[in-house]
Amino acid sequence: MADAAGRLTKLAEEVLGTPLPVRIRAWDRSESGPPGAPVLVIRHRRALRRLLFKPGELGLARGWVAGDLDIEGDLYEALDLLAGLLWERAATTKAPRAAALRALARPELRAAARELLALAGAPVPPTPPAEEVRRRRGPLHTLRRDKEAISHHYDVGNDFYALVLGPSMVYSCAYWESPTASLEDAQRDKLDLICRKLALKEGQRLLDVGCGWGSMVLHAAREYGVRAVGITLSEEQATFARKRIAEAGLADRIEIRVQDYREIKDEPFDAISSIGMAEHVGRARYAEYASALYALLRPGGRLLNHQIARRPVADEETYRVDDFIDRYVFPDGELAPVGRTVAQLEEAGFEVRDVEGIREHYALTLRQWVANLEKHWDEAARLTSPGRARVWRLYMAASALSFERNRIGVNQVLAVRTPDSGTSGVGLRERRWG
Fold it and tell me: Do the beta carbons of residue 185 and residue 158 sit within 8 Å?
């Protein structure tokens, strides 16, 4: 079919009402669009059928994961151009973001709809990529469903995560002294900052909720002399963490459990760290989460809650997780505005003493992870699947831009279970954190 790229460019501009900011190369090798711009490569007309049957983010995501769509040139620039177009439409219309294709139902665009159908070929819905989560059992955020969701994201393979994360094996926002610092130094500095905010001392008992591959408990036990319990719902993470701890000679001071925070019965703890875990809790369960952590702390104990936040919306009941994130990255994950997080911690009984926003730090972290993935691309695809590697590349690059553009943020909230005496144990100028 001659000049598919030119026809698609014309269609896109007619539907969007603005010039297309990227170049298109179609399956017939035709090209159209601004010279020098990043190229959206449509390798197969099947990508159009995906969009027709699932307009918006999910159709685009399926095309990307399956390899029907690709980007040539600067991935960040391409995503920024496309996201800027979609976000601008969201700000100026009442239509959902990424819903431009639904406009084809308008009477004045019926000719464009027929053109797109002709370009798409056989009107048969393509099978979703194997990497997509489809059937989910039971109500949201039960113990079983949460374990299945965590397994989807984290049981991808420890070797794969080692390629992306580097030797630190820390899967959360690093803390950068400068943009030129190494990822390992920035992750070590983040762990140490948390230890100092928690005012850890030798002999204290630390609980790390969502301990990942054990980096936080290792640092706290080695550098601050605490006894630590790390909990995770991922069997692969637990196995890896136990091996690291044994090799470090700290098995007598650190215990790793495959356990949900709702199942812990051996309180109290002197301090709790929750780093990049609360995003999995869900708004329906967040009050329960906050109350559970409050009950696990001794009076005077500290909680450091490190959590991604989204911008608030005018009607919070309309908030929905992006289809791509829900189906391919974090099943059942939910983000909340930082103000709501602080309020729910306070409602549980905590005294919130400090909130530090570090979203620029996460953008730097994600760009490093993307660079690691791209450097080891062939091995990463072999360890998981080409589709899974493509999921992670898109998710991390798009997330980096979201942090840079203030669409999402990340915050460290320090809270205390202040006793009835009112003595919080927080120094008058402790924000220096040692």
Answer: no
Q: Which residues contact 404 (CB under 8 A, 6 or more apart)?
A: 360, 363
CA-to-CA distance for 408 and 230, rounded, in angstroms? Answer: 27
Taking the C-alpha atoms of residue 89 and residue 86, their distance in angstroms, rounded to an integer, is 5
Task: Provide the 3-class DSSP secondary structure of residue 336.
Answer: strand
Beta strands 269-275 and 205-209 are parallel
pLDDT in tens, the chain (434 residues): 579 999 999 988 887 888 999 999 999 999 999 999 999 999 999 999 998 888 778 888 999 999 999 999 999 999 999 886 655 444 444 444 344 455 555 655 567 667 778 888 877 889 999 988 876 666 666 766 666 655 655 557 899 999 999 999 999 999 999 999 999 999 999 999 999 999 999 999 999 999 999 999 999 999 999 999 999 999 999 999 999 999 999 999 999 999 999 999 999 999 999 999 999 998 889 999 999 999 999 999 999 999 999 999 888 877 777 888 888 887 777 899 999 999 999 999 999 999 999 999 999 999 999 999 999 999 999 999 999 999 999 999 999 999 999 999 999 999 999 999 999 999 887 777 75
Which three-class secondary structure state does DSSP give residue 274?
strand
Beta bridge pairs of residue 309: 336, 409
- The model carries a pTM of 0.90
Q: What CA–CA distances, in Å, run from 322 to 133, 327, 416?
A: 14, 9, 33
User: Which pairs with CB-CB distance under 8 Å and at least 24 residues apart come from 183-192?
Assistant: 183/365, 183/368, 186/361, 186/364, 186/365, 187/215, 188/219, 190/361, 191/215, 191/216, 191/219, 191/220, 192/219, 192/223
Can you point out the beta strands (E) in 118-265?
A: 205-209, 227-232, 254-258
Q: Is the CA virtual torsion 238, 243, 248, 254 positive or negative?
A: positive
